[in-house]
């Protein structure tokens, strides 16, 4: 046509570029089709409480496809399912902040969730910043009625029943000078209480079906608890309740946090002078970070959230997220009072930001040293959830843990994609880092890394029992033999 003079050369170029656009837009749907169909049924589990994730996801994911077919059922469905995938995989107390809407910023939801969300405000902001970096406008979603229903909680099937009596509270102890030992050091990690669950009953939000009945237990420092039970018995729901993300039920959950007198939120693990330190002390090895997030409770899901960004940003997430993502203070201006107390933490955290050596060291520590060369250093951006295997993503999540060193971490099948040797290695590393963990898992090999096991049975209303769980200590010598036999 060009040679016959019917069209100009520029038109050919324009057509090529237009077709490429269309191809890439449709490819997104094609590539995500499996995920879209696999998760479609789960969308009903979304609750208004989870709307922050929904909106963060909306703001952050795949606007191309949305623009292409706004309002059509197929794309809506796809996005809903993808959202659910995101929810199932990315939900975590270190990732979920208080409820926020679209890209309007954060809104508070109540002190209890806020307390839990102390790490999370930054994360919520980061997700939104991440979304903004993808140049997504919230008004692009105006036509999506069904999503709006979910986000607003106005659709009857998404209305959360009134808040009942499941309470989460934080008790903050300040360790005064008198508790410092005579040589000036802080008493080593003794058996202080980290978490107390009192008479916790969990029910499903809509049907009110009982999952866990009248659970009471305490978790002390280094009291590693394994949660086991049949599929659907309520293990994940329990961890979500601990993370402040499951409100349906009754009882009381108390987190105990400690302040060693230096900073509100970072407790020095080892001090050699008689005075509380003015400056954080650390050396370049990850093992010897002298401070930790004393108040942070991390939730590591089976499929960790991979931020859009560089490998460096992956590693710094969520603890040093404010700096690495350039989130403005405004983004969290409406944050909860508890989290406002975090400003000192942010300050100290920025002083303690891991160096390049630390990042390389921690990657080697989780047996991921090779990804630095594979992905051309720490500063190249990739779609990490696609280019890393699930096992690699899980190791990366443990690298984040080893950098942040929270006092308590909730692990929801977080090593499910790893071989036994890597799993054992990672558990040993977080144990050595002084992190107390509560894990959900099915493999008996996990017994070796825990002191207690909580068995949850499927609740049977006909049974007439007062509880559907039992807690027992793990005898390490006998479990080793059992594990050997079963492997
Ligand atoms: N948001 C929700 N609304 C209603 N029911 C839910 C919701 N979330 C979970 N459930 C139901 O609660 C029950 C317990 O779910 P949960 O995910 O806690 O089980 P689980 O013990 O972790 O299972 P698995 O080992 O298969 O992961 C399941 O029957 C599930 O369908």
Report on this model:
Pfam families: ABC_tran (PF00005). This is ABC transporter domain-containing protein. Residues 195-486 form the ABC transporter domain. InterPro entries: AAA+_ATPase, ABC_transporter-like_ATP-bd, ABC_transporter-like_CS, ABC_transporter_sub-D, P-loop_NTPase. The structure is a single chain. This protein is 37% helix and 17% strand. The protein has 2 domains: 10-158, no CATH class; 166-486, Rossmann fold, CATH 3.40.50. It has 487 residues and is α/β, with parallel strands linked by helices. Strands 6-7-10-11-4-12-13 form a 7-stranded mixed beta sheet, sandwiched between helices. It starts with 8 loop residues before the first helix and ends with a helix. The protein has 18 helices and 13 strands. The chain is globular and about 85 Å long. Adenosine-5'-triphosphate (ATP) binds next to α8.
Q: Helix proportion of residues, in percent? A: 25-40%
Strand content: 15-25%
Please identify which CATH superfamily of the largest domain we are dealing with: P-loop containing nucleotide triphosphate hydrolases
The largest sheet, given as strand count, sense and whether it forms a barrel, is: 7 strands, mixed
Which small-molecule species are bound to the chains here? Answer: adenosine-5'-triphosphate
Alpha-carbon Rg, integer: 24 Å
The unreliable regions are: 38-128, 130-163, 176-186, 261-294, 323-351
Strand order across the largest sheet? 6-7-10-11-4-12-13
What number of structural domains do the residues give? 2
N/C terminus separation: 70 Å
